Sequence to fold (504 residues):
Amino acid sequence: MEKRVRVRFAPSPTGGLHMGGVRTALFNYLFAKKHGGDFILRIEDTDQTRFVPGAEEYIVNALKWCGIAPNEGVGFGDGPHAPYRQSERKETGIYKKYADKLIESGHAYYAFDTAEELEEVRKRMEAAKVTSWQYNAVTRQTLRNSLTLPDDEVKRLLDGGEKHVIRLKVPRNEEIRFHDIIRGWVVVNSSQVDDKVLLKSDGMPTYHLAHIVDDIEMQISHAVRGEEWLPSAPAHILIYRYLGLESEMPKLAHLPLILNPDGNGKISKREARFPVFPLSWQDPRESTPYIGYRESGYYPEAFVNILALLGWNPGNNQEIMSLDEMAALFEFERVNKSGAKFDPEKAKWFNQQYLRKRSDDELAEEFKQILKQRNHSRKDEFLVEFCKLVKEKVQFVKEFWDHGSYFFEEPKLQVEAVIAKKWNPQSKELMKELQTVLETLDSWNTEAIHAAFDALVKEKGKIDMQLLRVLLTGAAGGPHLFDMLALLGKEEILKRFATALKKL
Fold:
């Protein structure tokens, strides 16, 4: 019988959740949703030295904004396997129980080496041109641990409360094979694997032990994580094997990196050209905040859509997809092995598509907040029509102002090149005549304005529409001219005519 699909996103609260982490959460979520399974948020806070205040709250808020909602876990309600913080789970003694089992079976050992002693060893190795020294099957024979010390000495040290860690006893020369859903079969020789610390001197487990214990206890069916954990996977396989739990081990999937636009290296939070965090993040250790996608004007649906297609192929040409549509198509077998280049311009395109899917009423409501910040206001009916005219020109709601500020403020004649090229006595006379014609209109709508304009052109000859636009808006381009005149209103247009003709 197939295991019920249960997956987890297990970030460490060591900083803000970047876009790579969000994508990992997203792929877990989609897989669980497709298979009617469970998605869990677990906080892996075993490394208390790297804990950053506010990071956990940020993780929860970021997932909520993205619409990636776990079924259970920190910030989303307890389930049958609470607590979901490893620091709290440690208090139950569960990690020590598993570590002791490995000690008893001879697959782990006590190491009494101090940090200073190990640093001294590293320095000696560096001096001897050994650049990749590690604590392993060879080097452990010369170090202070329960494999080299007499049993009575080990007992004395333990009884005396001597600081120590528990390390995994990795065999010297053994082939370790495991299957990754994305990468296929992976084969590593154990000589390349160090003796991982499983339990630290303060009793806190490391990631290597803690995530295995929790995945077993929480009945996780698939462990999905970034490829940075691939080198550690052989050690994890051994831990499962030595615990006698290899048959219960989750299926593994290691996701490819998200790369910089030029493909040179993974996305960095210091990349200044575009955001890397879903929400703005202020690291308490730094003075400058990192702007987020939300604050940059992206819709959460667009942001999630962008991430979904970084390294995953839905198997068709569809690009714009809801979470439900993504879930229906999602398979780990369609995730690429190689890294995916992030395209900031394509990201803007995605946001534009979602903006166009918004109703004019919704856009008007969003833009109303921007107007308020600029000390402007208009009736809802006006704003709805304004958004209808301008929305095809923008990628973000904040750009409505850039493309249509003249709807709310008297324009300046800024496009001097157009005026210099096209303004002459004849054009001035035509503009005056058009002004007079518009003054006489009883009906003020697009059709009536267009008809009056066409009648004048038929009588007097061509009127330069770009010049007309510049005179009335200060811009050389924009929405359909007659629609714009209709929305601005007769009184405002005639006033602008008078101002422009007076200046020129």
About this structure: The CA atoms of residues 369 and 375 lie 10 Å apart. The chain has four domains: 6-74+209-259, 94-199, 359-401, 410-503.
